[in-house]
Amino acid sequence: MISNAISIMIAVPLIGAVLAFLTRSRGQARLVALIASLVPLALALQMYTEFDKSSKLMQFVESYNWVPSIGVRYTVGVDCISFPLVLLTAIVSVLVVIYAWGENHRPNQFFALLLLNEVGVLGVFTALDFFLFYIFWEIVLIPMFFLIGIWGGPRKDYSAIKFFIYTHVASLVMLLAIFAMYFTYRLPDGSRTFDMLTLLQATADKSIFPPGLINAIFAGLLFGFLVKMPAFPFHTWLPDAHVEAPTAGSVVLAALLLKMGGYGIFRVILPMLPHVDKAFVTVIAVIGVLSIIYGAFLALAQKDIKKLVAYSSISHMGFVTLGAVAFTWLSIQGAMFQQFSHGIITCALFMSAGTIQHSVGTRIISELGGLADRMPKFASLMLAAFLASLGLPGMSGFVAEFMVLTGSYPTFPVYTLLVVFTSVGVTAGYHLWACQKVLFGPILKKYLDIHDPHAYEILAMSAIVFLTLLFGLQPALITDMMGTAAHQVMEPVVTLSQMGVI
Amino acid sequence: MDLGHYAPLGAEALLTAVSLLVVLVGLFTKGRSSLPGYLSLAALIVAMWMVLTAQTGTVFFYDSLRVDGFSQFFKAVFILVSLLVVIASLTRYNGRPGGDEYFALLLMATVGMMVVASAIDLVSLFIGFELASLSTYAMAGFDRTKKNLEAAMKYFLYGAASSAFMLFGFSMLYGMTGSTRIADIAGASLAAFNPAILIALIFVVVGFAFKMALVPFHMWAPDTYEGAPALVSALLAAGSKKMGFAAAFRVILIALLALKLEWYMAFAILAAVTMTIGNLVACWQNNVRRILAYSSIAQAGYISIAFVVLGVASEGMTGPNNLPLDQYALAGGLLLVLGHAIMKTGAFISTAQVASIAKNTEDPDDISNYAGLGRRAPITAFCMTIFMFALAGIPPTAGYFGKFVVFGSAIYGGLVWLAVLAILNSALSLYYYLRIISYMYLREPAGPKISESKGYVLSLLLALIATFWIGVLPDGFFNWAMQAAAALLP
């Protein structure tokens, strides 16, 4: 076992980002990026083999004093809640670099920013100290701002600034809630701490956190995470950001950044849920249901295929919210799996949209048609991705959504049925309609000279389709962990010192 | 006379001597020697070392100057700012006619600021203030362009008026207590002088508010920072404005502590209005130096939160790790001062670099000159970007950590409304910082690639390192600020 695996995993892309930034040619930049993103993947796979899937405790913990005067420690570690997402981040980061292999415009900065993004996301998923968590949470915004702003579409300035400010405000609200926890709770020796698990455990104590305070803290944290997910009605930054972002940016945004919000729900919100006002449960469930249904209907109404995919993300992330708040073992497990599964599938969806954009020159669905005729390989991959996204059995999306709906039924029978009867049909509808219109039918004359995309794009997409099938047919590879994690979030929080790891 | 006794004031003595020496060198070489710049640089480095190693806790000149943790903190900030400005000025002013005067004035201004930081007597405080102000009045008009002169004139008129306010307030305090020593004033039962004491309080607060550029006493700042030579603006915004804070901390927190119920509300309103107006107005500016000026007004609002928290902090309220809340809040204010000094110096030096290559010569600081700067002047643009993010409070930078402590102390002091307002302001400020960044990186270049001047680059990189250093390893700086705060508070 490699000691300090997590720190190395965070440090390598950071160093890689600096090196990639300093390179002079595209060849060097992308090579550095590939190596720097393969190292975390190798480490993650190594950790996977050593990971104890039945343990509810933190593993691979590292903890050092950082700012002792105010009780900040550098503490990182993974457990069954976070490890699947670390794995997802490592996988997606490599695939994004491969997909963007042909980037021509300021490639050194492009790959540096992709790596910096990976640093932030990995940090968020592994940090166990709120101070550290918040820093990584905010660092993620910077590369994304530039990815949208420099490589984006026509309205990139507006979208980049809107993305940054909107999500930054949400982070600040979250920071306020973190302050409130920090200043309310004292360790037995009178000092204060930013340790996440300790603070979360303390929130269960009504004598420290009276109901009014805990509700306010909960609302602040919830807002921070829901905006990031994003959930209706805080989703308006997402379509703008997605439509203007370059393909690699969209992939990272949908596959990784949105998962940060979901991770916050599992790590922070669910352990607090039993101690706050019960009305929150209804509110969150309604937000989840509305996100699913409203997202699906909005997707149905889109003319731009990328926007369609963006709204489908909102819809699919709604399953995470619903499954989490339904608070049964199966629904939580399903919600976690949905995070992982959507993270993979959405990569292929955005890559499809990106490939269409640069092969054909437009993303407007009504102007496309018959692409399968000239792009057979691409068409099969895109069709597979869309089928996975609509929830075809045998692929990972189906498993996740099935688990969420089955698990949520006992808690919210009406909402669950509402979702089943409205969104499932609509979801299938917009996916199939888009595929039918774009890929099939007679090829339009103006597209006679297009051809299959570059091998690296096909490679990245094939890898994703393969993973979708793999986790669809053998979900236990990762749901074992999530099953343990689901038990874990339903039980009282255990701190690191109680675990005996520090 | 035992000279060793005065060793803690060695830095001031050295800088005074060198500033006179620089004038002499200039006199004999007709201002064409490049010696003045390097002499000043060396003197500042030595002075920095002397300040950081000086023995603290001693009082000099019949209770008028005190060397303690608080004074040394501010002196280090002032010397750091001057150092960065001197490095940047080497290419611009050194060896040019008048260069010797520039460096001599800069050193004298630094000495003045350092005297303010140490002063525990209202008269010596005022003298330090005037020494620094008079030197900077001259510097503000140094390039003698029309804009320079207008800036200098405005700065001088407002400065003189605010000094008058301050002095009048001081004179009333003297009349009531019979002493100009801060300790004596703090010891007197001021409340017995109602309502005259309120008038004195108003004059003192208004005088300081002018110096700190708090709204509505801020009008001079944007005009001056825009019109003065960019490097002088760096000194004004980062250095001489902080002198106002050094003085205000001493006089208001210590001498007028008994009146805290009276002034804390005034500062709460000043802080709230200052940050909101500063940020709102900055959003509408197209001149980068004006944006920076309004941003520095907003930052003054954030720093003022420390006053408010100190006003509400009562005995026994403890912040993190059982540290007293008042000390914690003041340390946060000091960290903001330190961070802001570094980031603002860097930002203004970046504008100096841009102005020197500007296409739009009518307004060299117009934001259109920043288009595509990322490719024209990569180092300047990168540093400027980091300073912008740091000023907006994005971690892990100096700007984030200072805000973190101050806003946190406000929440703990029960001033949740103020903390929420500050945090919202912080988000609002992102708009104009991001606007500058988006011009630098998201637009097509406004001209060819240029070679960046070495002096500018060196000081920018130093400021960049400091910004990250404080943000990533804040513990040492936090403890330093805590010691400084402890030295000031009773």
Question: Structural class from helices and strands of chain A?
Answer: mainly alpha
Percent range of helical residues of chain A: over 70%
Structural class of chain B: mainly alpha
Largest interface here, residues on each chain? A-B, 35 and 34 residues
Strand-residue proportion of chain A: under 5%
Distance between the termini of chain B: 31 Å
How are the strands of the largest sheet of chain A arranged?
1-2
SSE diagram, text form:
The complex is a heterodimer of chains A (502) and B (490).
Chain A: H1 5-22, H2 26-50, E1 59-67, E2 72-78, H3 83-99, H4 107-126, H5 130-139, H6 141-151, H7 156-184, H8 196-202, H9 211-228, H10 237-244, H11 247-272, H12 279-300, H13 305-326, H14 329-360, H15 376-390, H16 396-408, H17 413-439, H18 455-473, H19 476-490, H20 496-499
Antiparallel strand pairs in A: 1-2
Helix pairs in contact in A: 1-2, 1-4, 2-3, 2-4, 3-4, 3-11, 3-14, 3-18, 4-5, 4-6, 4-11, 5-7, 6-7, 7-9, 7-10, 9-11, 10-13, 11-13, 11-14, 12-13, 12-17, 13-14, 13-16, 14-15, 14-16, 14-18, 14-19, 15-17, 15-18, 16-18
Chain B: H1 10-29, H2 35-53, E1 58-60, E2 65-67, H3 69-93, H4 99-118, H5 122-140, H6 146-177, H7 182-187, H8 196-212, H9 220-227, H10 230-255, H11 260-283, H12 288-312, H13 325-355, H14 373-376, H15 378-392, H16 398-412, H17 416-442, H18 454-472, H19 474-488
